[in-house]
Specification:
The protein is an alpha/beta fold and about 550 residues long. Helix content is about 45%, strand content about 15%. The strands form 2 sheets. An 8-stranded mixed sheet has the order 1-8-7-3-4-5-6-2. Strands 9-10-11-12-13-14-15-16 form an 8-stranded parallel beta barrel, surrounded by 4 helices. Helix 2 packs across helix 3. The chain binds phosphoenolpyruvate (PEP) and magnesium ion (MG). The site of phosphoenolpyruvate has 10 residues, from strand 10 and helix 16.
Length: about 550
């Protein structure tokens, strides 16, 4: 057995024989031509054919994976018209007197290298696209399409970099998993793999070695490990993992579309926590009713400088559209403490968890805050966006935030930019101060979401980053549970709703208690939604309510 480690981009475990798909460009014969006009004509004919194929692929992808994923084939058609690309092919044919397939191959290498060396991860991912369109032209010129699976039985597909068009063309009934040597988690191949829900690993260096072709392998899309010719112990361990993940899938099939309602009819919303738009497919796959926490600070963490209003708008708009009318609660940036961003140039703090973090940065640097709010409000015209503010400790903070929101709305109105005037505004209750004055705060906002990670840290005086203090962190401490109940009661008294988006929301030993308290929403990582739904369906609140609540007194 030998092991290859890549990056898992779609969870699941697959066992099977590896079939390696070699690219047409690997088979190019380089030759010199005399009749350059004729060679250019060959290229132009191939390009027209490629364009027609892409049109067909667009229609196919539209039916199979939806408009957003199909868009890539539209973009590929446009890339076929790119003047710089055409000039480069022309120069290689007319000046270097190369045959058309070599001219395209050289152009593809140069353009892909140029994209790959760019700082922007989106542009880097475009290297695969330029290779993809070039492969298509070369396949037509050499009359050799290598994109099909040769085996009659299902296989694990190995490729250097599986292009989106290849992914869509493959007969899905024959694919157990994807493994590629190159690729990025941002690439369309990864996105498509996730949409198709097939285990996938990228960056699997060495998988294309000829000696791996035809080998029995196991792909673990959760960890990114690939076991080639696995030994018996690995087979047994991975079989267990596969069984577990299939059981989860069966659970999904059973509970999909079922409303989370207790036996005695109490309803609760089950939402998903996400870190980026890339997590949206997992939101659907797990049947989340909305997004309860979109941690927008990851946009700032992944950027080398302040993300612009337009950059943020594109991300929030896409999230709003992908949610298809479901609520998407986007938390404004929660920088500081464990999430440091160099370009913010924040002074070093002795105790950053209690320092100038999250909303405190936003209120002291309103220009950064306003940029994000403008992007959020603009996106509100495209779906059900709700805005949530982290690390609140006082009523005056919330009033200041609302003033800034009103300013932003006024500006947008004056500029004639559409937005939803009724965009819900909520706060995270994650400091003991906010929990204690939640009766006052409830008069100011539309909803609460309890951040139990920070609420526990601040209530128990246990640094959440300090593993040595873990022993003192009793996540079921009555002080934390009582504060949660106080917040829920105060919100209901003032006619607003309360959710929980900290990790405690997914602690199933507390689900009954949260239902007894009347928590309105639980927001958890997507994979926990269905097990949590199961728990809700099994619960009879009236049977346990009195006992559980009296234990808190
Ligand atoms: C929390 O504090 O519970 C929370 C959800 O926010 P974060 O973990 O991002 O601080
Ligand atoms: Mg927090």
């Amino acid at each position: 057995m030998h092991t290859i480690k890549g990056q898992g981009v779609c969870g699941g475990v697959a066992f099977g024989r590896l079939e390696l798909l070699k690219k047409a460009s690997k088979l190019i014969q380089r030759s010199h031509v005399e009749d350059t006009d004729k060679e250019w004509e060959r290229f132009e004919n191939a390009r027209a054919k490629a364009s027609a194929q892409l049109k067909e692929l667009y229609e196919k992808a539209l039916n199979e994976v939806g408009e957003e994923n199909a868009m890539i084939f539209d973009i590929h058609q446009m890339m076929l018209e790119d003047q710089d690309y055409l000039d480069s092919v022309k120069a290689n044919i007319w000046e270097q007197k190369l045959n058309a397939e070599s001219a395209v191959g050289i152009t593809a290498d140069n353009f892909a290298d140029m994209f790959a060396s760019m700082d922007d991860s989106y542009m880097q991912a475009r290297a695969a696209d330029v290779r993809d369109i070039s492969e298509r032209i070369i396949s037509i010129l050499t009359d050799s399409s290598n994109t099909g699976i040769k085996s009659d039985t299902p296989v694990i597909v190995g490729a250097e970099d599986l292009a989106p068009s290849e992914t869509v063309q493959l007969d899905k009934s024959k694919i157990l998993a994807f493994v590629t040597e190159k690729g990025s988690s941002n690439s369309h191949t990864s996105i498509l793999a996730r949409t198709m829900n097939i285990p996938a690993v990228i960056g699997a260096d060495g998988i294309m070695d000829d000696k791996n072709g035809g080998a029995d392998i196991i792909v673990d899309g959760f960890t990114g490990y690939i076991y080639v010719n696995p030994d018996m112990q690995t087979v047994l361990e991975m079989q267990k993992k596969k069984d577990k993940s299939e059981a989860q899938k069966a659970l999904l099939a059973k509970l999909r579309g079922v409303k989370p309602v207790t036996k005695d009819g109490q309803q609760i919303l089950l939402y998903a926590n996400i870190g980026s738009n890339e997590d949206m497919p997992a939101v659907y796959a797990n049947d989340a009713m909305g997004v309860g926490l979109f941690r927008s600070e990851f946009i700032y963490l992944e950027s080398k400088t302040y993300p612009t209003e337009d950059e943020q708008f594109a991300i929030y708009k896409s999230a709003a559209q992908k949610a298809l009318g479901k609520r998407v609660i986007i938390r404004t940036l929660d920088i500081g403490a464990d999430k440091q961003v160099d370009y913010f140039e924040m002074p070093k703090e002795e105790n950053p968890a209690m320092g100038v973090r999250a909303i405190r940065i936003c209120l002291t640097r309103p220009e950064i805050f306003k940029t994000q709010l403008r992007a959020l409000y603009r996106a509100s015209a495209f779906g059900k966006i709700a805005i949530m503010f982290p690390m609140i400790t006082s009523v005056s903070e919330v009033r200041k935030i609302k003033e800034i929101c009103a300013e932003v709305r006024k500006e947008l109105e004056a500029e004639g930019i559409p937005f939803n005037k009724n965009t819900e505004l909520g706060i995270m209750v994650e400091t003991p101060a906010a929990a204690v004055i939640s009766d006052k705060l409830a008069e100011e906002v539309d909803f609460f979401s309890i951040g139990t990670n920070d609420l526990t840290q601040y209530t128990l005086a246990v640094d959440r980053q300090n593993a040595a203090a873990d022993a003192f962190c009793d996540t079921h401490h009555p002080a934390v549970l009582r504060l949660i109940k106080t917040v829920v009661d105060n919100s209901h008294k003032h006619g607003i709703w309360t959710g929980i988006c900290g990790e405690l929301a997914g602690d199933m030993s507390l689900t009954e208690l949260f239902l007894a308290m009347g928590v309105d929403e639980l927001s958890v990582s997507p994979g926990l939604i269905l097990p949590l739904k199961q728990k809700v369906l099994e619960t009879n609140v009236s049977e346990i309510k009195e006992k559980l609540l009296s234990e808190l007194e």
